[in-house]
Design brief:
mainly alpha, single chain, 5 helices, 0% strand
């Protein structure tokens, strides 16, 4: 029974690693952020650039935090506010999709493991 738990845990961890490490092109369009923040003050532009970099590397949780930080900035222009709002919605959707794929992969790994173990 202990061996079974170790094998199951290992398979689930591998499933998360495979899903998490699969590099796919980002489904989030960063152009609105890049365009609207191109002439922003240095600190705000830096936060926007960091969010874009995180989106492009599929680090959606980091991008989400930076976009929320940008959204809280009272000095944004209406164009910048709309860009943050639009990209934030895309990042939230991408994050939900990624979590769903990881859960599906883990469920498949657990099912495959249970089917491969000998019945007692």
């Amino acid at each position: 029974m202990k061996l079974r738990k170790i094998v199951l845990t290992t398979c689930i961890a591998l499933a998360f690693a495979v899903v998490g490490c699969s590099k796919q092109s980002s489904s989030v369009d960063t152009a609105p952020i890049e365009k609207s923040f191109s002439s922003a003050d240095p600190a705000t532009k830096s936060t926007a650039d960091t969010a874009v970099t995180e989106i492009k590397s599929a680090n959606y949780s980091g991008a989400l935090a930076d976009l929320q930080k940008l959204a809280a900035n009272a000095k944004l222009t209406p164009e910048q506010q709309q860009a943050v709002k639009d990209v934030l919605a895309q990042v939230q959707k991408a994050l939900a999709d990624t979590a769903s794929k990881a859960a599906d992969g883990a469920n498949k790994a657990a099912s495959d493991l249970q089917n491969s173990l000998p019945k007692k």
